[in-house]
Write a structure and sequence with these properties.
mainly beta, Hepatocyte Growth Factor, Jelly Rolls, 2 domains, six-stranded antiparallel β-sheet, 11 strands
C-alpha cells in the first residue's frame, strides 16, 4: 500500500481577533487498526471531524470511517498497545507547526546480507563520509531484493528519511528503492539521476524503517 499525504486544515476563531490554523496529516490510509477512541461522533465528514478534534485540548487526532469519527489522544497514538482492530479507516494526526521537527535516532539495524566488513551499523554511526574506502558505508550483497532496516527507540511518526549516498562510484544503485515503515511502503523512489544527499518523504507511523 502506498501512503498518500493528505492535509486537513481547520481555522479557530479565538479572543482578541486571533485566528489559529490547525492542520491534520494522514498517517495511515485504509488502516485495519486505529488508536483507541476517547470519544466518537456519528455522521461527520473528515473536515467536521478535524474541527471537532481541534476544539478538544486532549485530542491528538482522529480516525474516520464513512459516517463515524473517532477521536484519540497522544497516549493511544504513540503506544502500539493502544491501537485496536478496526474496519478499514483513515487515521489523521495533528501537525504542530510551532515546534521544530525532531530528529529520530535509530537504535539498531539489520540488513539482508553483508558485503565484506561493511555492516549495517556503518549507516548510522554518525560518520557521513560518502566514500566507500573510508569505511563509513553499509553495504549489502548485490543480489536482487536486498534490504536495510533501522529500529527506532519507540513508534514514531516518520515524516521523511535522509539518505547519504555513496559518491566515489555506484550512486545509481539507489536510484530505485522502496521506503517502508513497519513493512508498509510509504514511498516508492524511482530516479533518473543519482543523488548525493536527499530527503525522501514518508509520513508513516511505526518503529522499523
Amino acid at each position: 500500500m502506498k501512503l498518500i499525504l493528505l492535509l486537513l486544515c481547520t481555522i479557530l476563531e479565538v479572543p482578541l481577533a486571533m485566528t489559529v490554523h490547525i492542520q491534520f496529516m494522514a498517517v495511515e490510509l485504509r488502516s485495519i487498526s486505529t488508536p483507541a477512541a476517547m470519544e466518537s461522533a456519528p455522521g461527520l465528514g473528515r473536515m467536521k471531524c478535524a474541527e471537532l478534534c481541534s476544539v478538544r485540548p486532549a485530542c491528538f487526532g482522529f480516525s474516520w470511517l464513512q459516517g463515524l469519527c473517532r477521536l484519540f489522544d497522544w497516549l493511544a497514538f504513540s503506544s502500539t498497545d493502544g491501537w485496536q482492530f478496526s474496519e478499514s479507516c483513515d487515521v489523521y494526526a495533528r501537525i504542530d507547526d510551532s515546534q521544530p521537527p525532531t530528529q529520530l535516532k535509530l537504535e539498531s539495524c539489520s540488513q539482508s546480507s553483508t558485503y565484506g566488513s561493511n555492516v549495517c551499523g556503518r549507516a548510522i554511526d554518525g560518520n557521513r563520509n560518502q566514500k566507500y574506502g573510508a569505511g563509513s558505508c553499509a553495504h549489502t550483497g548485490i543480489k536482487p531484493f536486498e534490504w536495510w532496516e533501522g529500529q527506532l527507540a519507540a513508534p514514531s511518526l516518520v515524516s521523511y528519511v535522509t539518505i547519504y549516498n555513496r559518491q566515489d562510484c555506484c550512486a545509481e544503485r539507489l536510484n530505485k528503492f522502496s521506503l517502508q515503515v513497519d513493512g508498509v511502503e510509504c514511498n516508492r523512489v524511482s530516479l533518473t539521476v543519482p543523488f548525493s544527499v536527499a530527503n525522501f518523504s514518508c509520513n508513516a507511523f511505526g518503529s522499523r524503517v
